[in-house]
Amino acid sequence: MTQGWTRTVSVEELKTKGRTVYRQDGRQIALFDTKNGIYACNNRCPHEGYPLREGTLDENCLLTCNWHNWKFNLETGENQRDGDKLRTYPVEIRDGDIWVEIVDPSVEEQLAKSLDDLRQGFVDHDYERLAREIARIVRLGVDPIIAVKEAIRWSHDKMEFGWTHAYAGAADWLALYDEHAGEPENQLICLLESIGHMSGDTLREESYPYAEGAEDWDPEAFFQAVEGEDEARAICLTRGAIATGDAYGAMEHALARAALAHYADFGHSAIYVPKAGALIRRLGEDIAEPVLVSLVRGIVSAFREDLIPEFRAYGGALETFGTKPNGAAPAAADYAKLNANKAVQFTAEHGTAPALDLFRTLLAANATNMMAFDLSHLDDLDQPYGSDFGWLDLTHGLTFADAVLELCRKYPELWPAGLLQMACFSGRNIAHQDDNVDFEVWKVTDPDAFFADVAQTLFDHGHDEYIVSVHLVKTAQSVRNLLASQEAGHAGELALAALNRLLASPVRRKMVRRTARQAMRFVDTDI
Ligand code: FES
After folding, report:
1. Residue 25 dihedral angles phi and psi, to the nearest 5°
2. Nearest ligand 1 atom, CA 55
3. Which of 232, 244, 452, 470 is the most core-located residue (most Cβ within 10 A)?
């Protein structure tokens, strides 16, 4: 493209028109004759591209784009709305003609500006601006993965309780990103959803700083620090692992052990551990610290559901797991009537069965719970607090199974905990099944074609809430992993059918009347 000083129109022409647009090489330069002199700027509003030539100019050379009221200082390009800056051009008058200087900034300068603007869009959770800046980075020919890394750095200390689904989802979106190389629009979607979710989850959050310092990596000390909810020490030990140069490799076993030490936090901790590994492998070791300190914070602060009555049999079941000579895995149907405490005891009694057989049984039980979810539950207004679960909760039975398979195959001593926690999921989700849901209706006969369709669905998912879209992405990726593992057997087909029905069903999240009713009943118990 032409660079340097360029002749545009004559002063006379501009004076006659008051404002005009000069076009060159696809570039549109708006020229304004003002009482302060002649100004040149990009004619395309940096918001949505409408022509600034149509804007309103006041006596202070403040140009208003009337489409959405963004206001720019014509002299500097500053945007009074904190949005993107307007590009302006130096102007000179030579022999009655108007010359403008077109000097495009270097790639480095443009990248720095895009990252600055991306950060502003991130702070404001301005989805469109995030999309624009990522697109600009792509257009520069720079690997846009840098934007994901920056987003993690900007957000990791703003997560008061550690990881959210935003980081776990980023690992899965990045997997899709890599699979769809050569498809720029789909790849942009993957990055936008990753970064947008991080931005949304940390919107208006203050910083919650991590403890400073480092301590030599010691997996047992780390485990005890997590158990004792000593975040500061766990963080210092994490930095010791980072200093080894292979942070996740050093920590994976201890992280898996800590994450599976309790049936905790809807299984999030264990679900997130392999995702941290995937993120670091994909983004590089230099992202290990923000990824891992926030993960560790999350595991430390996870609520330990195995200590509440609904799951209290878990600890005892873990102690007796595999002590009874009952070596055959039960059938998934045997779990259909077992609440969580009964399910863990029943599983422990069959603990001498091959771990993978038990895994398949429990995966099938969880997949069946999900596939046969009774949708009328979503319309039931009389649910008490604590039983508000819906599709998203059911998906954890599958995403957790995926994590258990990955972690426990590597560290087999964790199988009892992993399997018993799968039994917890099975038990907590029974009693909401619709017996009329037929596997044959939801069965997927061509998984490859199905997942190709799923990807297209995800690329235009249409859900306002990230928490919904991220569960769809995570569940789809987990089911793919389970099938690819070759270990799932028929349970994998059930998981596939469950995913199929999830994607075809409404995912209602906001229960306005139920919430009001629950609140009224709850305050009636105040004394
Ligand atoms: S297009 Fe100019 S403010 Fe929206």
Report:
1. 50, 35
2. 2
3. 470
Give CA–CA dist 55/73, Å, rounded: 12
Tell me the one-letter amino acid at 446.
D
- Residue 126 phi/psi, 5-degree rounding, is -100, 95
Q: Report the greatest alpha carbon distance in the chain.
A: 101
Using CA atoms, how far apart are residues 260 and 280, in angstroms rounded to an integer?
A: 21
Contacts of 386 (CB under 8 A, 6+ apart): none
pLDDT value of position 383: 79
Per residue in 96-141, pLDDT tens?
999 999 999 999 999 999 999 999 999 999 999 999 999 999 999 9
How far is 211 from 203, CA to CA, in rounded Å? 23
Contact predicate 426/397, CB 8 Å: yes
Q: What pLDDT is recorded for position 511?
A: 83
- Torsion sign (Cα): 431, 432, 434, 440: negative
- Counting ligand 1 atoms within 8 A of each CB, the residue from 48, 80, 82 with the most, and so the one to mutate, is 48
Helix axis angle, 184-201 relative to 145-155, nearest 10°? 0
Separation CA 105–CA 527 (nearest Å) = 68
Q: What are the pocket residues of ligand 1 if the criterion is a CB atom closer than 6 Å to any ligand atom? A: 45, 47-48, 50, 65, 67-68, 70
Look up residue 276 and give its amino acid: A
383 Cβ neighbours under 8 A, 6+ residues apart: 377, 514, 518
**SS3 category, 285:** helix
Please provide the distance, in angstroms rounded to a whole number, between the alpha carbons at the two ends of the chain: 76
Tell me: the pLDDT tens digits for 459-475? 999 999 999 999 999 99
CB 424 within 8 A of CB 340: yes
3-state DSSP call for residue 21?
Answer: strand
Dist. CA 411–CA 307, nearest whole Å: 25
Position in ligand 1 atom list of the atom nearest CA 48: 1
How much distance in Å is there from the Cα of 70 to the middle of ligand 1?
6
What distance in Å separates the CA atoms of residue 149 and residue 483, rounded to the nearest whole number? 30
Tell which one of 42, 44, 50 to mutate to probe ligand 1, the residue whose CB is within 8 A of the most ligand atoms: 50
Residue 195 CB coordination number (10 Å): 29
Distance CA 423, CA 428 (A): 9
* Cα 46–chain centre separation: 27
Given a cut of 70, the residues of the chain with pLDDT beneath it are 386-387
To test the pocket of ligand 1, the residue of 56, 67, 87 to mutate (highest count of ligand atoms within 8 Å of its CB) is 67
3-state secondary structure string across 191-251: HHHHHHHHHHHCCCCCCCCCCCCCCCCCHHHHHHHHHCCCHHHHHHHHHHHHCCCCHHHHH
